């Protein structure tokens, strides 16, 4: 079967010149922006995107067109921000877009900004993506020079200023209010809601924050129409989605698939199955924050928002982690708990204290100093965190913790009964042990 | 108005009321909390005030929720109680639990809430605790203990929003997050001790109060700060006749929840070595202790029917009732009276700001005007004293210290000093009468807004010192006056009858926030 027919977002991936304006324009780039500004007008653009059913690709899956509609009518100053703080363990799809197709991101951002009435657009790129900041900045410069951005663009009909902002290295700045605070120059930590950013965000003005992959789909939707986009995917999960796949499969990397694709088919046809000598044990479908599935559960589900929810997990960011049989699940959860402990902003007590506590209990188990009661304690600490904080970071730590405990309990029980963990063999675990 | 059902009781609240405040009203006590403060922005970080709102999928924090029509709220359900316990446990896992050596013990939010919501066995090993720096002196008045901190951010918000000085911040993240002072700075604004008041735990403590007294031994008396014309509502904390600290008493009409650091220091003058404890009479050129009968006999000879009083001055630090009674006494004794401020303590014009501190350090200047007493400036005062013949009576002031020409004007005349401290005027007087200091008596002050507020007696007077109004009333009686009060309420009724501005005001039943006579909606108005 021809997997290339689903390439909406990834058609320039791997092309040496794909990031340059000339190549992008040769592919028909910036036609959608011209049409949006010259013919359609903002309300029609909003309607088209809403009709396409495009859902936010950052993790929450909220319909983009609906989110745009939260800007209060008549708002004078609106800001648009592109969330390129891609930091979820297992997730590396936005990075491909920024690297191979920055102009699609820029055009999508410009159309989205136009649709919500923003005159300033900020592309917020995580600090660790230093080379991508340069890459995107060069593309933005090209777009300015070509008259798509800045003063005088479109004969003065739509003059958008676009800023590339480099983050300083915090996972939590990928939460939209954390991102806004970081751009403002404040400590990168989420703000309490309400008010929601669409009403009061950057500098107290309505602000829409969308994921890189979300905005990158917008030019295609305008070019081909909402109906064409809906030919891909399912009724409630329309379109295509990038999955970044890591783990010992034959073809790891970023794959674009129509939503609704059965996991079994994706695993077999796209990924080529497990690498030699490896056997599938578990799958984290949408980035480290979503509940893990056993191999059997994974094989019965399909890759769309609803099917994965029904299977007890989430599509999330599409950061798929394939876990082989030889992997020690307690070691893996230790790595993840280290991550959330390290990245908690520390504002809300349940998260600040809970992430550290979970990490300590798991470490204690692996040192062979655990007790059988520790498993109940882990669950109790999770109960004291879930749903009780300003942002979902606490839940993001609780979901893997609970699901690992629930689905791979014997591995935890063996440690709790006094068995000392085998020496950690991963580089991460060695670093974390200190 | 919106109708809200809280724990089964339907109540009405003004639209826009915070659910936190509504719950306080409905429950008769606040929800558990650390970060919420009525005079600061909502942070929503301690997560303790979560309640169940029907129709909402998750528990919600009351502090960031506004009441809505038809809202049904549960604050005492098992789910809510469990969440509070779990979150409290989170607050405590890295807390050092060093209550025996913590100054906050007894007025600590962690202790109080543990007794209400906690009462569980800790499951955190001591070795698992995150340790942070202790005993950091972060300013001239405040000590920080980072590991006791629950990171409620009240102190940070106070410095950002109230003083707008921004000294404090939360540095680092996760369970390594800690309160700190911005590099190169210290917490040295004029209101720094408010951070200690609003700190719900023992993270910020007062250098002055630290280790002086266990708080459960203290008794509190509602009072007023006498440090300037603002007249902040305060609480006097005292034990066995000694005042240990002043704390602001929340009064939205005057000082909100705050008071200045300088005002807090004023308790020290109550216990100064220079306090007057007994009458003093000049004999053989020196002031020597005397009994009250001796003092009365000397007073009658110096300023009585036989020897008319020459001039009387009173300080705007005395209470409304005292000034009124003193002015009446001066009239009975045949002397003109005037107000006089100045003196070492009340270096009259101090540093003010637009928050609370008034440049006018006299707490009751407005009362002088109400009672028709003027305040002659500098040399004018001396000239008027010089022009009057007879003894000079000084009440509460210290003109000998800094009124130009005063010493020359009173040279060779009998000076009677009524006061609390051995100041320059007392030292050069012939008769010194010891009276009560502000915390030792009831009295009314009129602040810069024209607001009358009550200050209450917290502690006893030292030694043989007399209560001011009784002394003045006794003197009136001795001087043959027909009109003198028999009690303080009696005196207040008499004062209200003499001051046109106070027509119809019952000075014996002032509301806790005081009142501005005649002002429309006085409770809400006025400068802060």
How would you describe this structure to a colleague?
The complex is a heterodimer of chains A (434) and B (528). With 434 residues, chain A is of the alpha/beta class. Chain A folds into three domains: 3-230, NADH-ubiquinone oxidoreductase 51kDa subunit (Rossmann fold, 3-Layer(aba) Sandwich), CATH 3.40.50; 240-324, Ubiquitin-like (UB roll) (Roll); 329-433, NADH-ubiquinone oxidoreductase 51kDa subunit, iron-sulphur binding domain (de novo design (two linked rop proteins), Up-down Bundle). Chain A has helices at residues 21-26, 31-40, 42-52, 64-68, 93-100, 102-116, 130-145, 176-184, 212-224, 226-230, 263-270, 295-299, 305-310, 329-343, 349-366, 373-383, 393-407, 409-416, 427-433, and strands at residues 78-84, 118-125, 161-166, 207-211, 240-246, 253-258, 261-262, 280-284, 293-294, 302-303, 319-324. Chain A has a five-stranded mixed β-sheet with strand order 6-5-11-8-9. A four-stranded parallel β-sheet of chain A has the order 3-2-1-4, sandwiched between helices. A two-stranded antiparallel ribbon of chain A has the order 7-10. The longest helix of chain A has 18 residues, at 349-366. The mean pLDDT of chain A is 94. Chain B is elongated. In chain B, the strands form six sheets. In chain B, strands 15-14-20-19-18-16-17 form a seven-stranded mixed β-sheet, with helices on both faces. Chain B is of the alpha+beta class and 528 residues long. Chain B contains 15 helices and 22 strands. Chain B has three domains: 2-90, Ubiquitin-like (UB roll) (Roll); 126-217, Alpha-Beta Plaits, CATH 3.30.70.20; 280-502, Rossmann fold, CATH 3.40.50.740. In chain B, strand 8 (168-171) and strand 9 (178-181) form a beta hairpin. In chain B, helix 8 crosses helix 15. Classes of the chains: A alpha/beta (434), B alpha+beta (528). Chain A binds chain B through residues 170, 172, 187, 189, 192, 194, 341-350, 352-357, 360, 364, 377, 380, 383-385, 387-390, and chain B through 42-48, 50, 58-59, 64, 83, 86-87, 89-91, 93-94, 123-124, 128, 130, 150-151, 153, 169-170, 172-177.
């Amino acid at each position: 079967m021809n997997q290339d027919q689903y390439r909406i977002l990834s058609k320039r991936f791997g092309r040496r010149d794909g990031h340059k304006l000339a190549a992008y324009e040769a592919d028909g780039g910036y036609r959608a922006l011209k049409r949006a500004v010259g013919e359609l007008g903002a309300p029609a653009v909003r309607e088209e995107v809403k009709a396409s059913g495009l859902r936010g690709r950052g993790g929450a899956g909220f319909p983009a067109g609906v989110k745009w509609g939260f800007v209060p009518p008549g708002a004078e100053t609106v800001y648009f921000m592109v969330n390129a703080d891609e930091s979820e363990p297992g997730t590396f799809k936005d990075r491909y877009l920024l690297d191979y197709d920055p102009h699609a991101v820029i055009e999508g951002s410009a159309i989205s900004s136009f649709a919500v009435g923003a005159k300033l657009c900020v592309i917020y790129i995580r600090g660790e993506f230093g080379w991508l900041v340069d890459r995107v900045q060069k593309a933005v410069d090209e777009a300015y020079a070509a008259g798509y951005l800045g003063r005088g663009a479109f004969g003065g009909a739509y003059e958008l200023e676009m800023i590339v902002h480099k983050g300083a290295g915090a996972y939590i700045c990928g939460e939209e209010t954390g991102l806004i605070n970081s751009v403002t120059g404040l400590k990168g930590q989420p703000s309490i809601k309400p008010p929601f950013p669409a009403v009061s965000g950057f500098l107290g003005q309505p602000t829409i924050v969308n994921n890189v992959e979300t905005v990158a789909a917008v030019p295609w939707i305008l070019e081909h129409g909402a109906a064409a986009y809906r030919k891909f995917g399912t009724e409630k999960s329309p379109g295509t989605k990038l999955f970044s796949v890591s783990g010992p499969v034959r073809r790891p990397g970023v794959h674009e698939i129509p939503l609704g694709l059965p996991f079994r088919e994706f695993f077999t046809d796209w990924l080529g199955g497990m690498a030699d000598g490896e056997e599938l044990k578990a799958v984290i479908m949408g980035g480290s924050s979503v509940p893990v599935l056993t191999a059997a559960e994974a094989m019965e589900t399909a890759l769309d928002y609803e099917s994965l929810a029904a299977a007890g997990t989430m599509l999330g960011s599409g950061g798929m982690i394939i876990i082989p049989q030889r992997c020690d699940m307690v070691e893996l959860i230790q790595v993840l708990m280290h991550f959330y402990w390290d990245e908690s902003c520390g504002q809300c007590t349940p998260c600040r204290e809970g992430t550290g506590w979970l990490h300590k209990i798991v470490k204690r188990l692996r040192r062979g100093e655990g007790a059988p009661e520790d498993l109940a304690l882990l669950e109790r600490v999770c109960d004291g965190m879930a749903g009780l904080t300003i942002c979902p970071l606490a839940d993001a730590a609780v979901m893997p913790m609970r699901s690992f405990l629930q689905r791979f309990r014997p591995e935890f029980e063996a440690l709790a009964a006094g068995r000392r963990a085998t020496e950690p063999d991963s580089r991460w675990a060695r670093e974390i042990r200190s | 108005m919106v109708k809200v059902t809280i724990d089964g009781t339907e109540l009405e609240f003004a639209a826009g009321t915070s659910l936190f405040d509504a719950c306080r009203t409905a429950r008769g006590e606040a929800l558990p909390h650390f970060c919420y403060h009525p005079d600061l922005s909502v942070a929503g970080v301690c997560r303790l005030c979560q309640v169940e709102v029907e129709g909402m999928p998750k528990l919600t924090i009351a502090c960031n929720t506004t009441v809505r029509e038809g809202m049904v709220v549960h604050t005492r359900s098992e789910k809510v109680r469990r969440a509070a316990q779990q979150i409290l446990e989170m607050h405590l896992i890295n807390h050092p639990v060093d209550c025996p050596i913590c100054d906050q013990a007894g007025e600590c939010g962690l202790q109080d809430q543990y007794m209400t919501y906690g009462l569980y066995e800790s499951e955190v090993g001591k070795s698992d605790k995150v340790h942070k720096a202790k005993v950091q002196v972060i300013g001239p008045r405040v000590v920080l203990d980072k590991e006791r901190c629950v990171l409620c951010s009240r102190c940070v918000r106070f410095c950002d929003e109230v003083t707008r000085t921004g000294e404090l911040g939360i540095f680092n993240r996760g369970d390594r997050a800690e309160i700190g002072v911005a590099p190169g700075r210290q917490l040295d604004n004029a209101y720094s001790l408010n951070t200690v008041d609003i700190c719900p735990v023992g993270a910020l403590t007062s250098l002055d109060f630290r280790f002086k007294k266990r708080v459960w031994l203290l008794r509190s008396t509602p009072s007023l700060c006498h440090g300037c014309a603002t007249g902040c509502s305060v609480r006097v904390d005292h034990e066995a006749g000694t005042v240990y600290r002043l704390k602001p008493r929340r009064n939205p009409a005057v000082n909100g929840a705050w008071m200045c650091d300088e005002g807090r220091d004023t308790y020290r003058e109550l216990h100064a070595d220079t306090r007057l404890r007994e009458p003093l009479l000049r004999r053989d050129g020196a002031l020597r202790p005397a009994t009250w009968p001796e003092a009365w006999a000397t007073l009658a000879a110096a300023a009585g029917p036989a020897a008319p009083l020459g001039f009387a001055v009173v300080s705007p630090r005395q209470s409304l009732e005292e000034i009124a009674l003193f002015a009446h006494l001066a009239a009975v004794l045949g002397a003109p009276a005037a107000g006089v401020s100045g003196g070492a303590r009340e270096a009259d014009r101090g540093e003010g700001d637009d928050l609370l501190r008034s440049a006018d350090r006299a707490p009751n200047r407005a009362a002088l005007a109400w009672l028709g007493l003027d305040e002659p400036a500098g040399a004018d005062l001396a000239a008027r004293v010089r022009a009057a013949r007879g003894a000079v009576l000084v009440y509460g002031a210290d003109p000998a210290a800094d009124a130009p020409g005063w010493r020359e004007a009173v040279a060779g005349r009998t000076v009677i000093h009524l006061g609390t401290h051995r100041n320059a005027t007392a030292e050069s007087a012939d008769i010194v009468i010891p009276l009560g200091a502000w915390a030792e008596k009831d009295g009314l002050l009129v602040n810069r807004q024209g607001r009358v507020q009550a200050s209450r007696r917290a502690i006893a007077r030292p030694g043989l010192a007399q209560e001011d109004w009784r002394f003045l009333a006794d003197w009136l009686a001795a001087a043959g006056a027909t009109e003198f009060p028999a009690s303080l309420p009696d005196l207040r009724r008499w004062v209200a009858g003499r001051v046109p501005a106070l027509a119809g005001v019952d000075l014996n039943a002032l509301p806790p926030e005081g009142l501005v006579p005649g002002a429309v909606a006085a409770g809400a108005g006025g400068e802060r």
